[in-house]
Design brief:
The chain has 86 residues and is mainly alpha-helical. The protein is built from three helices and no strands. The longest helix has 27 residues, at 54-80. The N and C termini lie far apart (63 Å).
């Protein structure tokens, strides 16, 4: 496996284990487990988010860029009053 695939697998396992710990802490109402889950989720968000959700982030950035271009074009049309008047 490539390094990227290994990293993604590692963070996926960490996310799954954190979710299982969350469910366990939820059902047992164990505060210590809940604190551990919050710490683990924060670490996963800070360090693993870019690896786990790389493709989704790229798609999101492209959609935002396209919508910003459309927004600017719309502003330009309105500014120049090029829209069709009836």
């Amino acid at each position: 496996m490539k390094k990227e695939e290994t990293e993604k697998f590692k963070w996926t396992i960490a996310l799954g284990l954190t979710f299982l710990c969350f469910l366990y802490g939820l059902f047992t109402q164990n505060i210590l487990i809940q604190l551990l889950v919050m710490l683990s989720a924060t670490l996963i968000y800070k360090n693993g988010n870019k690896i786990l959700f790389k493709e989704q982030d790229e798609k999101r950035k492209r959609r935002i860029e396209e919508s910003m271009k459309l927004k600017e074009a719309t502003k330009e049309i309105i500014r120049e009053k090029r829209f069709i008047k009836r």
